[in-house]
Amino acid sequence: MTAVIIDDEAKARLLLKTILEDYCEEIDTIYDADGLKAGVKLIREHLPDVVFLDVEMPEHMGTQINDFFAEDEINFKIVFTTAHSEYAVKAFELNAIDYLLKPMRPKQVREAVSKVYAERQQKTVSKQLVELRDSFNTLNFKKIGLPVSDGILFVELEDIICMEADGMYTKFYTKNSGSKMVSKPLKHFMELLEENKEFYRPHRSYCINMRYIKQYVKKDGGYLVMDNDVMVSISREKREEFLHLMSSF
After folding, report:
1. What is the Cα–Cα distance from 145 to 122, expressed in whole angstroms?
2. pTM of the entire structure?
3. Are strands 199-203 and 206-209 parallel, antiparallel or unpaired?
């Protein structure tokens, strides 16, 4: 595969290039640029399989790459690189975008390249970038990217009725897209949605969207019936907290 590295820091470019050469046999050709405009020129000339793109650069943010290409031109995978910003990381994870945290380590680079190699036939990159830029432009994340078997499914948060844990998987129940099994644990999504007050975890196996509660049933220890008739247990230690929340929701 051919790779392009775009980063304004020379040391960062050299480190990543060295790791790719030493640990990633899938990568056989590497080009690098110190800014987005120069990087775009390299991309057009060499048609890479993967672009490693720094988020924060002086003239252009890496997330502005969509401004330089038509939608059907982005047929390469993008792995963003960032030195900090918990906010940026949350935007990447919400939109199922690949990223590397600086300082980069061989293991994380190797894992990213392996994933790119496995997924390079997918054509979802441009759509992901649009969603990512929207996330950077507002603190009110409105969509979440769910990795499914044939790509990434973008779901409106308000469309999610509830989520159910199934080991290292999570089953999403949605209003408009039915149910979807996703290969991420429920804990992962709870961390992403921790600031969204509409989502609540009444039991370790469930997370619900409070707006879709149809009924609270007292018997059998207490449970909820959601708008899609899925029944959700309420753990004993959460019952009092839940009833208090419902009184003020």
Report:
1. 15
2. 0.53
3. antiparallel
Contact 52, 24 (CB under 8 A): no
26 and 100 housed in the same domain = yes
Question: Is position 167 within any domain?
Answer: yes
Q: Which element (helix H / strand E) includes 86?
A: helix 86-94
Rounded distance between C-alpha atoms, residue 53 and residue 69, angstroms: 15
Torsion of CA 135, 144, 84, 53, to 10 degrees: -80
Verify that 120 and 191 share a domain, yes or no: no
Number of domains forming the structure of the chain: 2
Give the number of other Cβ atoms within 10 Å of residue 70's Cβ: 8
Token readout for 224 is: 């909820």
Tokens representing 192 are 């992403």
Run means of pLDDT, 10 residues per run, the chain, 249 residues: 95 95 94 96 95 89 86 83 69 66 90 83 55 55 77 86 94 92 90 86 95 90 93 91 77
* Domain region containing 230: 157-248
- The whole-angstrom separation of Cα 67 and Cα 81 is 19
Instruction: Looking at the structure, tell me whether residues 62 and 176 fall in a common domain.
Output: no
Place of tokens 């994340």: 141
CB atoms within 10 A of CB 3: 26
In this structure, are 126 and 35 located in the same domain? yes
Amino acid symbol at 135: S
Q: Which amino acid, residue 213?
A: I
